[in-house]
Amino acid sequence: MSSVIPEKKFEGKIVSMRGNKLVMSNKAGKNHSHTLAKDVTITCDGKSCNAEDLKVGCKVRVTTKDDHRTVAVLIESLDRHAEYTVIAAK
Predict the structure, then answer these.
(1) I need a labelling partner for 11 at 20 to 30 A (CA). Which of 4, 46, 73, 81 fits?
(2) What is the pTM of this model?
């Protein structure tokens, strides 16, 4: 039996990025704090990048696992290419 853990996605803008801690705000202005997983994948406009490349004000989509919603496993910076953005379900 497969034990796939569902993912949760958060979209917004970076408020701060220090070490392995990311704080982002959503469209409603509420802040979410995430710790980067040791094996986090980070992309900037579809290309692999590092946490140091993430800047305050950048649009991001942060993916977590449902069982650990504060641990980011994927961070996608979406500033330059709209085609990488996903329209949130209504």
Answers:
(1) 4
(2) 0.80
